[in-house]
Write a structure and sequence with these properties.
The complex is a heterodimer of chains A (137) and B (159). With 137 residues, chain A is α+β, with helices and mostly antiparallel strands. The longest helix of chain A is centred in the middle third of the chain and has 14 residues. Chain A is built from three helices and eight strands; from the N terminus they run E-E-E-E-H-E-H-E-E-H-E. Chain A has one domain. In chain A, strands 6-7-4-1-5-8 form a six-stranded antiparallel β-sheet, sandwiched between helices. Chain A has a two-stranded antiparallel sheet with strand order 2-3. Chain B is of the alpha+beta class and 159 residues long. Chain B has one domain. Chain B has four helices and five strands, in the order αααβββββα. A five-stranded antiparallel β-sheet of chain B has the order 1-2-3-4-5. In chain B, a hairpin with a 5-residue loop joins strand 1 and strand 2. Classes of the chains: A alpha+beta (137), B alpha+beta (159). At the A-B interface, helix 1 and helix 3 of A face strand 1, strand 2, strand 3, strand 4 and strand 5 of B.
Amino acid sequence: MNGFIDPDELLARYITSSRWFRKQDQTVKQDAFMPPEPPLGTPLELSVTRHVNFTEDDIWNIGRGIAIHASRTLYGRADVKTAHVTAQRLSLESKPESDNPNHANIVGWPLDKDARKIRALEIASVADFVANPEGKI
Amino acid sequence: MVSIAMPLPISGHASPIADFVARQIENSRDMLQESNALGFAAKGTFQQLDEVFEECSSEGWDGEQAKPISEEVLRCARRFLRSFPLGMEAPEVGAEPDGAITLEWYRSPNKVISISINPDGWMYYAALIGTSKRHGADFSLMGVSDDLVEIISQVVRGS
């Protein structure tokens, strides 16, 4: 990614499936951090939103927009520090979008799926689940 | 945890009788997993599978570019689950954006195993057990391996 990223900077991954977090202890499953299969010839990437310069309202508004656009329920978000992503030998690529200037992708995923899973599992183990304050759970 | 090992199906039998016996064993195992109090059916696992399939069988089910879970993946997951020893703790069923079904055994964020059943018949697993990590791949149609059963047991054993 261009420019300095504070390792403490938080990244949000929106949770749009009830099966991506555990209701019993409000923790996040690795499923939420697995990248989708990309079109042929393009790299694996996982969409996240950087917290930097955003208020809590801004962060939730982006998530609501994503959920509404896809007719999904926004259950919450998984917050993780950039340092936990880079510790897994992954990197962050800033990809601002018209409706989300803080959009970024986690890139550098290995080709072997089990190697991706262990990285997603490690990231999920340190992520914090933040429930949607509108209470959609 | 008490678990009862069940034989896996054998292909290429020497005679029609051997083939019949193998089929009967396979059917018995399926019936036990589907109906016995020790099996995954009684614990709601097969019902969870159907629910996940229902929720995630359309393109973009995650609000982004997720692939739908196919009937083939559902069949592979059912078959894989039937191969487990009876008496095992039931997993929680989930889905990944690449169209895989996931089976998770969880005690804490650092004591967890996730298995993905993929459309190509392969399964991939990753586990955190305290400070140790395990991950690998296998062919799901071969059923669960003793090694994987041991890793799951390490996750669910104790607190």
